[in-house]
From TrEMBL:
Gene3D superfamilies: P-loop containing nucleotide triphosphate hydrolases. InterPro entries: P-loop_NTPase. SUPFAM superfamilies: P-loop containing nucleoside triphosphate hydrolases. It comes from the Bacteria. This is ABC transporter domain-containing protein.
Length: 47
C-alpha cells in the first residue's frame, strides 16, 4: 500500500500516511495503545 492513512471525522489522525509492504505470511503489529494498530488492520481488510 502506498501512502495508506486514515483521519477520523473529528480531524484526529488515526494513521499518518505510510507506505506498507508485507512480504511474509505472518506478521506482528505491535505498538502502544492508540498507536493505530486497529486502524491499520481495518485499512488492510477494507473496513
Amino acid at each position: 500500500m502506498d501512502q495508506a492513512g486514515h483521519t477520523y471525522d473529528d480531524g484526529h489522525v488515526g494513521l499518518a500516511p505510510t507506505d506498507i509492504t508485507i512480504s511474509e505470511l505472518r506478521v506482528a503489529v505491535i505498538g502502544l495503545n492508540g498507536a493505530g494498530k486497529s486502524t491499520l488492520l481495518g485499512l488492510l481488510d477494507g473496513s
